[in-house]
Amino acid sequence: MQTIVAIAYHTGYGHTGRLAEAVAKGASEVPGTTVEQHAVDQLTEDDWQALDRADAIIFGCPTYMSSASAAFATFKEATSKVWADNMRWRDKIAAGFTNSGNMSGDKLNTLVQIALLASQHGMVWVGLDRYGGWNTSAGAPSDTNRLGSWLGAMSQSNNDEGPDTAPIGSDLETAAALGRRVARFTKLHRAGDTYLSGTEDGSRDAVLSGSGTGECAG
Ligand SMILES: Cc1cc2nc3c(=O)[nH]c(=O)nc-3n(C[C@H](O)[C@H](O)[C@H](O)COP(=O)(O)O)c2cc1C
């Protein structure tokens, strides 16, 4: 079964773009996953259609002034057309990531904004399943999930470094872990759907409402 994981992201200066690449790399490690990246400040009609076709959308943007960047906010509002069309992103898998200059930098607010966007669309949110790192005397910045985030992947990029060196490898690996997890859950979600669609009563909705048997015809 081939599944599509789309990454819809904004980057102002390239740092969050590195994170998007890492998320893509992680997702692509799950066999049978097609990964697409879409820069939300350059979306064409084809990009919007690709997002409609995706089984999962992972949203990402930098944190600017404690919030999602303005370019991402513009995209966020533009998705209201999708929502108004019978919530056509309903039931897709969703996740999020953000990057900022400070260790905290109030970037949890950005992930909350992204998670609320996904919730308004009726999407199914997947967070990060990694223990926090860099939180003991033996810990180090090289620990994955060094910023201790579970709603989504966070990274920090020094303000005096370009995207060639920031964010650091542990943040990129954290982002890759999120990509892998989303790709795995997307497969499980689609496989369950496909299984139930093949039940003897032939109706996923019948099974889920309790009137079907749930016995697979095959
Ligand atoms: C307009 C603006 C606002 C920013 N606000 C914050 C902030 O609230 N918190 C923070 O930690 N860093 C903040 N930063 C730093 C950026 O988050 C940081 O440079 C990040 O790496 C930029 O990612 P990008 O290269 O993908 O645009 C801000 C940067 C800019 C340009």
How is this structure best described in words?
The chain is α/β, with parallel strands linked by helices. It has a single domain, classed as Rossmann fold (3-Layer(aba) Sandwich). The chain has 7 helices and 7 strands; from the N terminus they run βαβαββααβαββαα. Strands 1, 2, 3, 4, 5, 6 and 7 form a 7-stranded mixed β-sheet that branches. The protein is globular, with a radius of gyration of 18 Å. It starts with a strand and ends in a 9-residue tail after the last helix. 39% of the residues are buried. The structure holds flavin mononucleotide. Residues 11-16, 62-66, 99-102, 105-106, 157, 159 line the site of flavin mononucleotide. One of its GO terms (cellular component) is membrane. InterPro entries: Flavodoxin/NO_synth, Flavoprotein-like_sf, FMN_Rdtase-like_dom. One of its GO terms (molecular function) is FMN binding.
Key descriptive features of the protein:
binds flavin mononucleotide; single chain; seven-stranded mixed sheet; 218 residues; alpha/beta; 39% helix; 7 strands
Radius of gyration: 18 Å
CATH architecture: 3-Layer(aba) Sandwich
Parts with pLDDT < 50 across at least 5 consecutive residues: none
Overall residue-averaged pLDDT value: 95
According to CATH, the homologous superfamily is Flavodoxin domain
Strand content of the residues, in percent? 15-25%
Number of domains: 1
CATH class placement? Alpha Beta
For the terminal residues, how far apart are their CA atoms? 16 Å
- Helix fraction by DSSP (H/I, runs of at least 4): 25-40%
Attached small molecules:
flavin mononucleotide
Class from secondary-structure proportions? alpha/beta
CATH third-tier fold name? Rossmann fold
| Number of helical elements | 7
Total strand count, please? 7
- Sequence of secondary-structure elements: EHEHEEHHEHEEHH
Shape: globular
Largest sheet: 7 strands, mixed
GO cellular component, one term: membrane
Domain Flavodoxin-like: 5-183
Region (Disordered): 147-170, 194-218
GO molecular function: FMN binding; NAD(P)H dehydrogenase (quinone) activity
